[in-house]
Amino acid sequence: MSWRGWFTLILLTAAALSGWALWSQRDKPLAGKANVQPDYVLNDFEVVVLDKTGKESFTLRAPTLTRDPNIKTMDITTPLFLIPPKPGSQGGAWEVRSQRGWVSAEADEVRLRGQVKADSTNAEGKPIKIATEELNVFPDSNKATSAVAVNMVQPGTILSGLGLEADLETKNVILKSNVKARYEAKAR
């Protein structure tokens, strides 16, 4: 075989190996997860979610919501959740905002991520403001938790700590560790 034959054979082998290498490195779905198209998408919407007794559990407003048809969970872009006070409870409704949201298939757990802000009023009508990067809300039980840094501001008091457990109905908020408090005198 001439040098041109050998050279052609080497080039064909190199091309075949390059093609195989590119093919084997292509993007593949994660194990057990195919690229699933949502079974529905909502744009610029408001939805009222009812609890098992038919009363309002929460209202959700957002620019985009998609639902996974296999596991029935929902992903939400920049959600605003309005959680009404339970009858007879003290204080106002909660307004909870974040960059991203996720709702479980049963709508009994909401995970909020990225610049989470929760605002309400206490029994005296004074504002309560909570800021964190992660908040898990359980609407049926009116509870919320976080495992990351949390700041809570009430008139005259700024609290910061790591982790949170909150009863949204009674407005009882517990910061779990590394708690620091700063008190500010009232303006006259």
Automatic annotation (TrEMBL):
Source organism superkingdom: Bacteria
Key word Isomerase present: no
Predominant cellular place of this UniProt entry's protein: membrane
Membrane topology: Single-pass membrane protein
Localisation: Cell inner membrane
Keywords, comma-separated and alphabetical: Cell inner membrane, Cell membrane, Membrane, Transmembrane, Transmembrane helix
UniProt key word Membrane: yes
Signal peptide feature range: none
Transmembrane stretches, start-end: none
NCBIfam families tied to this protein: LptC_YrbK
Entry's family note: Belongs to the LptC family.
Its job: Involved in the assembly of lipopolysaccharide (LPS). Required for the translocation of LPS from the inner membrane to the outer membrane. Facilitates the transfer of LPS from the inner membrane to the periplasmic protein LptA. Could be a docking site for LptA.
Subunit-level organization: Component of the lipopolysaccharide transport and assembly complex. Interacts with LptA and the LptBFG transporter complex.
Protein name in UniProt: Lipopolysaccharide export system protein LptC
Organism from which the protein derives: Lysobacter gummosus
Gene behind this protein: lptC
